[in-house]
Amino acid sequence: MFGERGDGRVAGEDGTVRDSGGRPGVATDAPFTSLGGVRRDMTLETLSPGETDAEGVDEAVLDALAADGYRFKVWGGDWCGDCQRQLPAFGAALAAAGVPDDRIEDFPVTKGPNGKEGPGVEEYGIEFIPTVVVEDADGEELARFVEDADVTIAEALARDLADVEATA
After folding, report:
1. What tens digit of pLDDT does each residue of 20-51 get?
2. Contact, 76 vs 126, CB < 8 A?
3. What is the per-residue DSSP string for 28-49?
4. Where does the chain have alpha helices with state H?
5. CA 142 to CA 107: how far, in whole Å?
6. In which residue ranges of the chain is pLDDT below 50?
7. What is the pLDDT at residue 49?
8. Which domains does the chain have, with CATH numbers?
């Protein structure tokens, strides 16, 4: 099965499946496989700060996000109003805090007949989006933001991380 697959992915003579951008893909018709086999032809564009900036974000919040070793796992959907409203500001806060890209993982989700579907949804118990999980370098969950709060995602996570640090 070489050539165009009908879904924007192309299989080369060596059998490697590549998406329309030439990036290696996953040879499956399923929207997602597992965390290790995520089809990266779906992205979470709403996490991009775009024109949003982090002006006005408290320095203590930025410092909390920037702490060494924290990994941010973000589930959302570009189709989701809550994600469109909240994730650009969170992306801007992560950028302003200097969090390197390799410590931020985005997981686009879709609406399925039985709820949200996508990489890590079952493993992490994702029911509502946006959901942001903060883990330490060992993969232990330290904080979680789910869907909405009385403050921004960055502020809610900074508050939760401060509580973790205070009890450590």
Report:
1. 444 444 333 333 333 333 334 457 899 998 88
2. no
3. -SSS---GGG--TTS--GGGS-
4. 59-66, 81-96, 121-124, 153-167
5. 19
6. 1-41
7. 87
8. 1-30 (no CATH), 45-167 (3.40.30.10)
